[in-house]
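Handover notes (outgoing to incoming on-call)

Open items:
1. Carbohydrate ABC transporter permease: sequence verified, structure written out, both below. Nothing else pending on this one.
2. Nothing else urgent.
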Amino acid sequence: MIIGSLQKKPDTSLKGAFPTGGLTLHNYAEINSRVDLVRSLLNSGIFTGGVLLGTVVFGVLAGYALARLHFRGRGTLFAVMLLVQIVPFQLLIIPIYVMIVRTYGLADSYAGMIVPFLINSTAVFVFRQFFLALPDDLFSAAQLDGAGELRILWSVALPLVRPALLTVVLLTFIGPWNEFLWPFLVTKDQSLQPLAVTLANYISNIAGRASNPFGAILAGAVVLAAPAVALFVVFQKRFTASEISSGVKG
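Carbohydrate ABC transporter permease structure tokens:
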């Protein structure tokens, strides 16, 4: 994909994957001349950052509650949460759109794009499983020292579930970063549209008229995929790194 985006002339054969010359950044320059990449990147950052913040905060609180707090209906609530995951988001688009746009009046706003994705049941499940894996002795020791639940969560549990945090951040990042359908429905204001929507419009409506349509389409795909790939490369070694038992003697 990267090589194809750098080709001067389209070459879709196997030989084209091993170019001997003729690479250029012209395809990227054409995107930048037709699309405000800086503004689109900023919009994607706001959209994705808002979703990440909501997912982590609500995921940690709900996951901790389902794993460590004892209350009536906890098992039923967890079962319902699992059932929610089998419902495709596409089935919910129309009712959510009516609620967000007509009921709450959040069309053409960042909040309208972010709110439907603030709570992620997958993130809740991941955090719950990690909190269940922590030794009970750590929580008992903290309770004996007089720590409340929020203090235990912040000082004891969170430092030990960094792999879960990184996993949730990466998995959550990929979704809103590549999401183009929902932002496109919520806002028609181009100054608010994230990168995925902007590049989808470019690839669908403009890339075909470029001097190298094949390279222009691949260049758009590279621009969209590069941040997610970079994030994975940076944090991949930390996914399995854990010090769960470091606070327990013996």
